[in-house]
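Example record for the data management plan.
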Amino acid sequence: MSRIPSHYVEFMQKNPEIGDAYQKLGEATLDSGPLTRKHAELVKIGISLGACLESAVRSHCRKAIEAGATEQEVRHAVMLAVTTVGFPTMMAGLRWIEEAMAG
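Corresponding structural encoding:
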């Protein structure tokens, strides 16, 4: 599984107040509804793919697997995007998650 990008780690270290607020916002939104962390991360894969955010797709792939999603579930989350974002974007997403899962 891929590691957390160094630029993210550096930003969080240099800006701890912003990093803390960002993490608290993420936890608050997760805690505000019925989705499990696994399902929330699968949803976030789709959102990230729709916005063509490669780094976010990779990040949420890693987080989904850490939360208990299988590689097959992650792939399915990406494939579901084909009718919304199109075949080329879906294919790019598959490449991003395969690379993330390979490590």
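Summary line stored alongside the record: The helical segments are 6-14, 16-31, 37-50, 54-66, 71-79, 82-85, 87-102.
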